[in-house]
Design a protein that fits this description.
It contains 16 helices and 18 strands. It is of the alpha+beta class. The longest helix has 52 residues. It is globular.
């Protein structure tokens, strides 16, 4: 509750009037005043200064004004009393309204809890039942904080910022309760509707079309509310106000992200799943046992169609079916050649060397069109951890005579198969069978819809699922989401300045939004052994320091990114098949692991230094899309450990803001980490 503030009464204006000139009156004897007599107000129609029983000039002598000092004192007291009464009334009114509006901070917690619960798949029925009463409460708090007396009091020192904060929160929460919560109810009912996913696994796309306008409004309102509350300076607020304001700000930002994703899904799913005609897509199964920037080497490629909400597998190829090309399938820039070599455009397995998925998708779709002869409408990629999340929703599947569950799929797919299948073609075929079995399980209607949605959201948040559309309008929307993975966004691209909660406050002197891909540094891993040993590699990337107080330049900060690597293969690793231990000349004994670590600074940023433990190390320096790039190779023997620290300049986060760092999703770490100012 906001502390009530009693306004200090101002100085009342001086009262009194000068006597009017006139003929001098004759002297009249006046008895001495009675010291015990108390002045009383004159009755209506009495001469000024007259009182019952008081001697003075007769009524017929109005030109005698009485003692001027006494008249001024009475008028001063009268005006001061009136002013005091008005101020006391205003203070009382303000205190009353403050008590009502302060409830808005309490209601904010309830609204955000309902919002979070609804977005997480909670009981939207209970939310729908309680929504009218909740909306009445938030409307009452908003009205109280919008009172004219309240708005006037916002100009007071000390108290003013606190009153402004309470009003801002009350308005934001009421907007969310009015526009966003009904859409959350509708979204929950949509997901729970048994008709949304038919028995054959197809989706009723009409339900998404009808839900899209409400979700658009909800996302827009919540984004605006998050921006308004996020712009408040909590340093000027008392603790009892600052704490709730920060919580509301964080909650609204999270909700805005979730509602934005829901809005995007409602707009994208119908056309992408064939509401306007059949579509053809490629599904890339990434193999995390051999790391690439996107999460793993391309292990298998499947083609599927989407028509009227139904998806069907139509073709499947191993990477050996898509032979390497003599020349890149598309022209590569000099920067791409310097950082990735021509392998990027010649091998389908290496199309994901770049962390920029739109570029990977363009290359893969061109390779498919050249080899198979059919164009595609889009490309999806998924790593094995995302597969495990989906299996948790669908239940076990069988591939190659082996049952795979969410708990066993990673070990079976990325370790056991390589021991059991010493021939690389057999291992590739098994990998393709697993992808086919999972696709069939999802497309045939297995699994709970909500559980499948949660699995996809989790995988997307960890950057384990990526999507690209060949249709520009759809790609513009995808690029603004985590699914788009548009890391190397160019000026003018949709992802270059992502519209997110607080985006207008996130822009700094660097000119880059710290929450867009363009504002993020990156640390990416690519296997250098040409083997399948990364199953035994543990990775951990953290933002060890983010120094904001002493910027290297206006609008910039300095980040220290720490990468810990630990390699723990089994004792008999040297006896694994050669395609597992690696065919590259790394200078290591059999069973050793080489990994290329590529660091990207944000556009305009710099890589200041790189250290292995405490020693400075160098790397191959280059640039790509206005980013400084450095690549170095780490070599680990079994049981080896390495800690790298890279210092880069980054766009300074806003107050209480954060910095995202993109990285390779591995079996042990997600594809994005976040840091906040440490000084």
């Amino acid at each position: 509750m906001t502390p009530s503030v009693e306004p200090e009464p101002g100085s009342a204006p001086e009262a009194g009037a000068a006597a009017q000139p006139g003929p001098a009156p004759q002297p009249v004897p006046v008895p001495p005043p009675d010291p015990a007599a108390q002045p009383v107000p004159a009755a209506d129609g009495a001469a000024p200064g007259a009182a019952d029983g008081a001697a003075g000039p007769p009524p017929s002598a109005p030109d005698n004004p009485g003692p001027p000092r006494r008249r001024r004192l009475r008028r001063t007291l009268l005006v001061a009393g009136v002013v005091l009464l008005v101020l006391l009334a205003a203070a009382g009114w303000l205190a009353s309204r403050a008590a009502q509006a302060a409830d808005g901070l309490t209601e904010a917690g309830a609204v955000l809890a309902d919002l979070e619960n609804g977005l997480a798949g909670g009981d939207v029925g209970a939310l729908a039942d309680g929504l009218p009463g909740l909306q009445e409460d938030t409307a009452r708090a908003r009205a109280a904080a919008s009172d004219p007396v309240w708005r006037l009091a916002e100009h007071l020192p000390w108290a003013g910022p606190n009153l402004t904060a309470v009003r801002t929160v009350a308005v934001a929460v009421d907007d969310v309760a009015t526009d966003a919560l009904p859409a959350v109810v509708e979204l929950g009912e949509l997901v729970a509707d048994p008709q949304v996913r038919r028995a054959d696994g197809s989706l009723d796309l009409g339900l998404f079309v009808r839900a899209a306008p409400a979700l658009d409004r909800a996302a827009t309102t919540t984004r605006a509310s998050a921006a308004a509350v996020g712009a408040l300076d909590t340093a000027r607020l008392v603790g009892r106000v600052a704490g709730p304001v920060t919580q509301v700000s964080d909650g609204l930002a999270t909700a805005a992200d979730a509602l934005g994703s829901a809005s995007d899904a409602a707009r994208l799913l119908p056309p992408m799943l064939g509401a306007d005609g059949p579509r053809t897509y490629l599904l890339l199964s990434l193999n995390s046992a051999e790391l690439r920037s996107a999460g793993g080497i391309v292990g298998a490629v499947a083609a599927f169609t989407a028509d009227g909400g139904a998806i069907r597998l139509v073709d499947q190829r191993s990477t050996r079916d898509l032979r390497p090309l003599d020349e890149p399938v598309l022209p590569l820039t000099d920067e791409e050649l310097a950082v990735h070599t021509d392998r990027l455009g010649r091998w389908v397995q290496n199309a994901v060397l770049t962390p920029d998925f739109p570029r990977s998708a363009e290359l893969v779709s061109a390779m498919w069109a050249r080899t198979v002869g059919t164009p595609v409408d889009g490309v999806l990629a998924m790593d094995p951890v995302a597969v495990a999340y989906l299996l948790d929703a669908t239940g076990p599947v069988e591939a190659g005579g082996v049952e795979l569950t969410a708990d066993t799929v990673l070990d079976v797919l990325l370790r056991e198969a390589y021991v059991r299948l010493p021939v690389v073609d057999e291992a590739d075929a098994f990998y393709a069978d697993v992808a086919s079995a999972l696709f069939t399980a999802v497309s045939s209607g297995r699994g709970d819809t909500r559980a499948l949605l949660d699995a996809l959201v989790r995988a997307s948040d960890e950057r384990r699922v990526r999507v690209w559309s060949a249709h520009p309008d759809e790609q513009d929307r995808l690029a603004r989401t985590s699914l788009g993975a548009d890391f190397l966004a160019r000026p003018g691209d949709a992802a270059y300045a992502v519209e997110l909660p607080g985006a207008e406050t996130a822009r700094t002197g660097s000119g880059v939004d710290t929450r867009s891909p363009a504002g993020a540094p990156g640390v990416f891993l690519n296997d250098g052994s040409a083997g399948k040993l990364d199953f035994f590699l543990t990775t951990d990337l953290t933002v060890e320091e983010l120094r904001c107080a002493a910027p290297p330049a206006p609008g910039w900060a300095t980040a220290v990114l720490r990468l810990d690597l630990a390699y723990d293969p089994p004792g008999d690793i040297a006896g694994y098949p050669e395609y597992v231990t690696g065919t590259a000349d790394t200078g290591l004994p059999v069973g050793g692991l080489a990994t290329n670590v590529t660091v990207y600074a944000p556009p305009g940023g710099r890589i200041l230094d790189q250290r292995l433990d405490d020693a400075l190390v160098g790397g191959l320096a280059a640039t790509e899309q206005e980013r400084a790039v450095s690549t170095l190779t780490t070599r680990l023997l079994p049981g080896g450990r390495a800690t790298y620290r890279v210092t880069v300049t980054v766009p300074a986060p806003p107050v209480d803001g954060s910095l995202d760092v993109w990285t390779t999703p591995t079996l042990t770490s997600p594809g994005v980490v976040t840091g906040t100012c440490t000084d």
